[in-house]
User: What shape does this take?
Amino acid sequence: DIVLTQSPALAVSLGQRATISCKTNQNVDYYGNSYMHWYQQKPGQQPKLLIYLASNLASGIPARFSGRGSGTDFTLTIDPVEADDTATYYCQQSRNLYTFGAGTKLELK
Amino acid sequence: QVTLKESGPGILQPSQTLSLTCSFSGFSLSTYGMCVGWIRQSSGKGLEWLANIWWNDDKYYNPSLKNRLTISKDTSNNQAFLKITNMDTADTATYYCARIYGDYYVMDAWGQGASVTVSS
Assistant: This one.
């Protein structure tokens, strides 16, 4: 199994940068693509795709969100953070079946 | 516009079989590269992928639950189904279906979820 590790929580101030990390125990790269994706989930709602293949912005997602990384280390950055960004953020790999990280809860200071 | 909606019994008793339906629009499961998956989330917990089915009827299951899961589809009615046998209180969760975009193996659209409670 590919295990994804995220920090459980992060607190940032409005207008500042939030960086959420995701580390995997196996390489999720394959033929030039990193099969790592990021989702946002607000309470009572379904997850929403933010970033696919590590760095590609999903349709309709503001450019404040960005992703980077390869191999086993990935980050999601939100810059600047807005009040509406308070949510839990999940990374997910699809290199070998599908597994999710435990989620990082983003809160405002 | 891609939409998905899950439906299920809401409540069932331990040892019963859960039957879930995902009704979708905006794409077809007969189209090359299309896929629908099932994911669940226990209250306050993270996300767990369960199974997915491809346009060509290939099926994949979470190894930890494989012997209890059956996924299927009805292409003509734009529906996908999941059965889970021998339900336990630990299976109480919100069950989501999602479209998986085959080129990137990414879940790019999700249903609102169906709450399932297992209780005697």
Notes: The interface with chain A takes residues 37, 39, 46-49, 52, 60, 62-63, 96, 101, 104-113 of chain B (CB under 8 Å).
